[in-house]
UniProtKB/TrEMBL annotation:
GO cellular component, one term: cytoplasm
Pfam families named among the record's database cross-references: GTP_EFTU
InterPro entries: HBS1-like_N_sf, P-loop_NTPase, T_Tr_GTP-bd_dom, TRAFAC_GTPase_members
Region (Disordered): 1-62, 157-182, 253-327
Entry GO MF terms: GTP binding; GTPase activity
The UniProt record lists the keyword Protein biosynthesis: yes
Compositional bias (Polar residues): 315-325
Signal peptide start and end residues: none
Protein's UniProt name: HBS1-like protein
UniProt keyword annotations, A-Z: Cytoplasm, GTP-binding, Hydrolase, Nucleotide-binding, Phosphoprotein, Protein biosynthesis
Domain Tr-type G: 348-572
GO process annotations (BP): translation
């Protein structure tokens, strides 16, 4: 890992006086190579070396921002609609910044909607289509259920005398308006912001806080039209997807009375929605997600989600799909699930294991010896390590050298970077990571732990040493907390260096009693934590029961490797959208960057 290599080449003696948590060294000096600095870092004093920046999105009026934030905090459950409006504004500003007045506001809005509020994509769409994008209805997004529910109870009375539709459109009649219910607040906000620049989002939000709100005629008429469209869409969806498991929005939730339908797709637009069936692809139509599909869909920006024969005949009218998630898995998902299950059953389950603990608790020695005993390191190699360790007067570190590979780590006798290897137990395939225990390398420890499913916490049983690691601000406590926060739910505590306390059962019990309440407090379940006494140096209770006489009479539990074998494999949520924690970034020789981490 390039970043780690850079850390390794540093002389940490220079930073001994720096003792601030999480910042034990200067980021500018360590962790970023000079090449990376010159290529990517912004230098205020040297504009020539600053990175090429895209035109930035304009900053919002701070007062407006504050007010909006208040509103958002107070009505956290309505934020999505507000955020859409803000994103639209930002996108428009961004595009107009880049393209000047090459496109009309209407064209820009269409592009932003088609690109799902991705300003760069919208700009690209505009350029590709020279502004001639099909009309996209802003109401195509599924209504936010909680907003609809909330607003169904709000009677909206229009005020024809005070406000009128700016485009001169004719609103609903007074009695119609009185009986009208709003089912989608998102629609109102969009209308308010995009059609009439004098009404801000904040005004609408404020209005919506009142028990009854007054909206301009044109807004009411728009809501009415939108609801009709939703009603039609919902019915169409129900008709189209009966039997394929798609749950369309309920028609009832959009139902309103009367109104002009001319601005919205006719019910004949049923074929538009066929492609929503994830398992059925149309001839000549891109399969959602496939690279081919994306390419073919280029001439129609949103064809991968909803394109149609009707689109082709109507030319400039397209209807976006609702964002409902199918309840049945798609064919490709079934395939992946089957593949995954097949792989799981044909090989041992893979578990990512991290070894954590206070500095010098014996993590590397324990794991190095375990690997040796499991045959992952041959006798010849071990003899070489022993010989070389003897030469520099560090013979006790011979097993640690299996994992501590760099000159710096070996000469200093500490682990700096996370070492990674693998071994197999009877039923599991273990991906082993040995974390550094020194507090200066907590960032490296976090990088490794973020990728782990389970952990072995090594504590030193030696009197005084355990107390230093656990009670006096040591890393036994800190590593455990970090591991739990990073999603590690199963833990084995290796009570190491039992040879130094003559395999005293009393000492082992004392350590268990001190640690157990702490694990509970940080969120580990009792059943997910276990204690195993061992000695990394003598190899007792690693792969075989301890041979030491003092241990043999009281320890009847599993060996360390047996206990590791009992870890439950994590449940990988392969049927959920892909999500990954990026914990490391690699620069490829061939160009481009790669992110690494647990998904
Ligand atoms: N007596 C005894 N000494 C041990 C045992 N395990 C490790 N040691 C010694 O403890 C010292 C530190 O061991 P390491 O394996 O480097 O400890 P570590 O936890 O990996 O250290 P860092 O990775 O730097 O945090 C070495 O001198 C080991 O020989 C053990 O079971 N018994």
């Amino acid at each position: 890992m390039s970043r780690h290599r850079n850390i390794r080449t540093k002389n940490y003696d220079d930073y001994d006086d720096v003792d601030e948590y999480g910042k034990s060294y200067n980021d500018e000096e360590i962790g970023v190579s000079p090449g990376t600095v010159s290529q990517f870092m912004y230098r205020r004093d040297d504009p020539g070396k600053s990175v090429q920046r895209q035109p930035t999105l304009p900053e919002e009026d701070p007062v407006e921002d504050d007010l909006m934030m208040d509103d958002i905090e107070e009505r956290a459950d309505e934020t999505s609609a507000v955020v859409d409006l803000d994103r639209m504004k930002l996108c428009i500003d961004y595009i107009e910044n880049c393209s000047g007045d090459a496109f009309t506001r209407e064209q820009v809005k269409r592009a932003v909607l088609a690109a799902s509020y991705n300003a760069e994509r919208a700009l690209q769409l505009l350029l590709d289509h020279q502004g001639n994008l099909p009309v996209v209805s802003v109401t195509a997004k599924a209504p936010v259920p909680f907003l609809a529910k909330k607003l169904e109870s709000l009677s909206v009375t229009g005020n024809a005398a005070s406000t009128s539709r700016p485009d001169g459109g004719v609103g609903s009649s007074e009695p119609e308006r009185k009986s009208q219910k709003i089912s989608d607040v998102g629609v109102i906000r969009k209308v308010a912001t995009f059609e009439d620049p004098t009404i801000s989002t904040r005004d609408v939000v404020k209005k919506l806080k009142l028990p009854s709100v007054e909206l301009p005629d044109w807004a009411l008429s728009f809501v009415q039209e939108a609801n009709q469209q939703y009603g039609a869409m919902a019915k169409t969806l129900q008709a189209t997807h009966t039997g394929v498991g798609v749950n369309p929005p309920s028609a009832a939730s959009f139902a309103v009375s009367g109104g002009d339908k001319r601005a919205f797709p006719r019910p004949e637009s049923t074929p538009n929605l066929r492609l929503l069936d994830p398992g059925r692809s149309q001839p000549g139509t891109p399969t959602p997600g496939s690279p081919k599909g994306t390419r073919r869909g280029a001439s129609k920006p949103f064809s991968s989600r909803a394109t149609s024969r009707a689109d082709e005949s109507q030319g400039d009218t397209a209807t976006l799909s609702t964002s409902k998630t199918p309840e049945v898995p798609s064919r490709s998902l079934i395939k992946i699930t089957a593949l995954y299950e097949q792989r799981q059953s044909s090989s041992k389950p893979l578990i990512n294991l991290i070894v954590i603990g206070h500095v010098d608790a014996g993590k590397s020695t324990l794991m190095g010896h375990l690997l040796y005993k499991l045959g992952r390191v041959d006798a010849k190699q071990m003899a070489k390590f022993e010989h070389e360790a003897n030469k520099i007067g560090k013979s006790s570190f011979k097993y640690a050298w299996v994992l501590d590979e760099t000159g710096e780590e070996r000469s200093r006798g500490i682990t700096i970077d996370v070492a990674q290897t693998s071994f197999e137990t009877t039923n599991k395939c273990i991906n082993l990571m040995d974390a550094p225990g020194h507090k200066d390398f907590i960032p490296n420890m976090i990088t490794g732990t973020a990728q782990a499913d389970v952990a072995v916490l090594v504590v030193d049983a030696t009197r005084g040493e355990f107390e230093t690691g656990f009670q006096s601000g040591g890393q036994t406590r800190e590593h455990t907390l970090l591991a739990r926060s990073l999603g590690v739910a199963q833990l084995v505590v290796a009570v190491n260096k039992m040879d130094t306390v003559n395999w005293s059962q009393e000492r082992f019990d004392q350590i268990v009693q001190m640690l157990a309440p702490f694990f509970k407090a940080v969120g580990f379940k009792d059943a997910d934590v276990d204690f195993v006494p061992c000695s990394g140096f003598t190899g007792d209770n690693l792969t075989e029961s301890p041979r030491t006489v003092e241990a043999a009479h009281w320890w009847t539990g599993p060996t360390l490797v047996e206990r590791i074998d009992q870890f439950r494999p994590p449940v990988r949520q392969i049927d959920k959208p892909f999500r990954q924690i990026i914990t490391d970034v690699f620069k490829s020789q061939a160009g481009g960057f790669f992110g690494g981490g647990k998904n």
